[in-house]
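Re: [help] complex structure
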Amino acid sequence: MTIAEIMPFSVLLPLIGAPVCAMLPGRRLPWLLCLIVVPGSLVIAGMTLDAALDAPLQYAFGNWPPPIGIAYRVDAANAFVAVLLAGIATALLPWARRSVNDDVPDRQGPFYALFLLALAGLMGITMTGDVFNVFVFLEISSLASYGLIAYGRDRRALLAAFRYLIMGTVGATFLLIGIGFLYIMTGTLNMVDLAERLPAVADTRTIDVALAFIIVGLALKLALVPLHLWLPAAYTYAPSFVSAFLAATATKVALYVMLRFIYTVFQPDLAFVILPLAPILLALALAAMLSGSWKALFQEDAKRVLAYSSIAQIGYMVLGVGLVTAAGLTASLLHMFNHGLIKAALFMGLGTVAYQAGSVRISRMRGLGREMPWTFTALALAGLSLVGLPPTAGFISKWYLINAALDAGQPWLVAAVLIASLMAVVYVGRVLEAAFMQPRPTDAKAVHEAPLALLLPLWLMVGANFYFGLDTRLTVGAAEAGARALMAGSGG
Amino acid sequence: MSDHAILRVVARLVIPLFMLFGLYVQFHGEYSPGGGFQAGVLFGAAWILFVLIYGLDTGLRVIPEALIYNLACLGVLLYCLIGVLGVALGGHFLNFDVLWTTPKAAQQAGIILVELGVGVTVAAVVMLFFTCFVRRRALNKTGADTDQWREDNHDHDS
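Output below.
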């Protein structure tokens, strides 16, 4: 079997694993199954990336050739995102065991089945070369995420999940309307085919509206300001494992889909002409960076701080897209990957705190730094990566972003990036200040350091933040190849 | 509703017809409008009518809840296994041509098996939905506290 024939199994493994997982009893077996399925998916995704760096891979489902049948088409850009998804899921799993036991006390089969479905959906979105298939997988991953968020032990998780459901469904519907318009005008759903047929009908109002619907729908999924309202509550009240997984993956995939639509389906010379997309994206990115960071300064719940920080970080990624240069796109893809690592580490850290102390409110974390030094040191180091200090992964992507802004002749954007980073210093600092500097309240119950089963995966993730800050061959190389593949459009 | 003789008799009469029609829609799906989803809903509707007349307890004696739940998963698995069978026999995922000797029969066999999986899952999920609603209603009637969510004790101040 060639690699192109194995490639779809990075989606199929979790997809087939999900119903099996749902039937497994107890708490250990479902987790063990995930431990087989998810790393398997990662290995295949890694092999795919290796092969896709040279030439795009294609796989036709049911042997129906692409314009008619559904096909996966994977180039460096998809493969890079797929490796991020499967990698984060794999790295989170060893840590998940304890944390999920705490959040989901009884049968865990359905919980892990939803997790596998969410992963399969996200992987499917990244790999497919068919726009309707994007919508189907988007619904699979979204429905699974709503369920996962509702598992949160705080009853407000239900409301958060419901709000996400409403907003997410509106977003998916907008995307579907856009896809429907494209189909009306061209008669095809295959991305490559669409790219060939769109220029002939580009001057119609239908295509303008289609692009607008698709961008707005995806911006909702992406939680781009001002469509971000579902995100803070969803990340705050979801179980720790779910927060870490979704924060590191879900919005990245929505951004990838947006890039795929702009660059492959519409082609940049079309997309950036029929709508003033570049200034809109730049303005929204700036609004996201500044307002997200600003809101993060005043949150009482540490998970909510991270949620607002995610909104700001999405701004960085969209900023790279708004520059409309290869360098900007590279920075955007790079930050997608690095922010996945950062947020996974931070949410794992907070999850560890929640596991030991029962709460992640900043007022409850006073003095905990001395009780749980390893956990909070890990949080501090991951915080450095979020702020963007060398030698962390966060520094690399901000460096590339700033360079891209300078190359594009927009030095004032650098100021915005720096201001948002300074705000990150403050909101990360608030959490750490409470933990390390303030005394533990005398009436607080005793809290001990977390068990090794939680600390080891956490430190591995923090280590990854430093590793990818020092050795950038994989990330920068793949991000550049991904940007090239996107820029080349369907011809690549 | 057990004292309504007319309803009981009519239900006995139409429930088998519902199910038969469901099967017809299932196995005629490749020729005519229909298929696994519609058939599954019809099949589930027959059971729902049975529960409406005879009550949930009787309905769950016909088919236990654990079985419904597992059937929902097994239906998806059947779909996936047919897909993987295509790979195992040397084709691509969901490639039906390799399943049989002649292409037409192969496509028919493939689509019927796959749609059977869809039908089983949809029927089971419809029944599970209905079970949830009935349970909820019964609990509301007795006034029992239905919420067993663990709440974070420290979190009341926001």
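Chain B has one domain: 5-140.
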